[in-house]
Design a protein that fits this description.
Elements lengths: L3 E4 L2 E3 L5 E7 L2 E10 L6 E6 L5 E3 L7 E6 L4 E6 L8 E11 L2 E6 L3 E5 L2
Parallel strand pairs: 2-11
Antiparallel strand pairs: 1-3, 3-8, 4-5, 4-9, 5-6, 7-8, 9-10, 9-11
Length: about 120
Amino acid sequence: QVHLVESGGGLVQPGGSLRLSCAASGTIFTAAWYRQAPGEERELVGGITSGDNTNYEDPMEGRFTISRDNAKNTVYLQMNSLKPEDTAVYYCHALIEFGDVIDDYWGQGIQVTVSS
């Protein structure tokens, strides 16, 4: 059974940093981070390909960095210079190989709150 588990969220002051982790029970091919603020639709934060190419939505460009550790089947989201408007539940979405099956999965989501 495939598991995709996020960790590293919490409360941080404006201007602070957090690193989210997304650990999979299988091999991650591509992955992306999304977020959903209260009352808003889920939006893309950015993604990483199997070749380590990354892309980001404009509000996150230059502040957020996505990386991966293939040995640990884990993808990371480093968030710097956090703003109150970054407050949201963050979700990991990944294309994962487990056994002979390749499919896409969502993590359960993790809360990030930016507040003084």
